Amino acid sequence: xxxxxxxxxxxxxxxxxxxxxxxxxxxxxxxxxxxxxxxx
Length: 40
Hints:
Number of domains: 1
Number of helices: 3
Order of helices and strands: HHH
Helix content: over 70%
Number of strands: 0
Shape: globular
């Protein structure tokens, strides 16, 4: 998950690239991203 967030935060990678690199599903990524934004 840390790698996915680092890639997302860098703004250098598309969502597809992040999902392909991490093997994560789109819905899972967005769910974790939503939870992360709520914590801030």
